[in-house]
From TrEMBL:
It catalyses: a cytidine in rRNA + S-adenosyl-L-methionine = a 5-methylcytidine in rRNA + S-adenosyl-L-homocysteine + H(+); a cytidine in mRNA + S-adenosyl-L-methionine = a 5-methylcytidine in mRNA + S-adenosyl-L-homocysteine + H(+). InterPro entries: MeTrfase_RsmB-F_NOP2_cat (IPR049560), MeTrfase_RsmB-F_NOP2_dom (IPR001678), RCMT (IPR023267), SAM-dependent_MTases_sf (IPR029063). Belongs to the class I-like SAM-binding methyltransferase superfamily. RsmB/NOP family. It comes from the Eukaryota. One of its GO terms (biological process) is rRNA methylation. It comes from Oikopleura dioica. PANTHER family: 5-METHYLCYTOSINE RRNA METHYLTRANSFERASE NSUN4, NCL1 YEAST -RELATED NOL1/NOP2/FMU SUN DOMAIN-CONTAINING. This is 5-cytosine rRNA methyltransferase NSUN4. One of its GO terms (cellular component) is mitochondrial large ribosomal subunit.
Length: 196
């Protein structure tokens, strides 16, 4: 994701705040919004920004449900990052308790929430702006299927933009990096542009 000081940027799930702190040090003149969607994540995010950001007064910290942005701040942002809460199979399969609870129903429930959040992100993005939809899931239900449904349902008429990378593999609407292909993952990224 390329950011400049001219962008009006939103990080919809900004907690724990490491990305916001990094951006504040790299682009000191960039004013942006970062969101902690639960009371505890909002509090942690606010603390991390206050203590570590280079330009904390230029960073707006909200505690909203992610779906609120599409209504309350429609067509506001030039760039939106949506790192959607997802299955994160790497964590799930390493934790016996989580693994016992896991079924494909979990990933389908996540996909329903992710679709609402992605439609909100698209609505919050101005004409010509870009949304980056990211998950830590290998599930197609949470990745390309969510994007495909959002492309059909969103009123903003977004289009998927091809992402060039040497890591991972191309999917219909983005890229997928699996844990055996990189020192991190799983990771899915889709870049969506709102037409002008």
């Amino acid at each position: 994701m390329e950011l400049s000081s001219k962008d009006n940027f939103l990080d919809m799930f900004g907690s724990p705040g490491y990305f916001a702190v990094l951006v504040s040090h790299m682009l000191k003149k960039l004013s942006f919004t970062t969101n902690g969607a639960t009371p505890s994540s909002h509090q942690k995010l606010r603390s991390r920004i206050t203590e570590n950001a280079a330009n904390s007064e230029g960073i707006r910290v909200t505690g909203w449900e992610a779906v609120k942005f599409g209504v309350a701040e429609a067509s506001t942002y030039s760039k939106v990052l949506l790192v959607a809460p997802s299955s994160d199979e790497k964590v799930t399969f390493m934790d016996e308790k989580l693994l016992k609870k896991w079924t494909d129903k979990v990933t389908r429930q996540n996909a329903k929430k992710q679709l609402l959040n992605l439609i909100s992100a698209l609505s919050a993005t101005e004409s010509g702006g870009t949304v980056f939809y990211v998950t830590k899931s290998m599930s197609p239900f949470e990745n390309d299927e969510v994007v495909e449904k959002a492309l059909k349902k969103s009123r903003t008429e977004p289009v998927a933009i091809k992402i060039s990378t040497k890591l991972g593999r191309a999917t219909k609407y983005g890229i997928q990096i699996l844990p055996h292909e990189a020192p991190f993952g799983p990771l899915y990224v889709s870049k969506l542009k709102i037409q002008e």
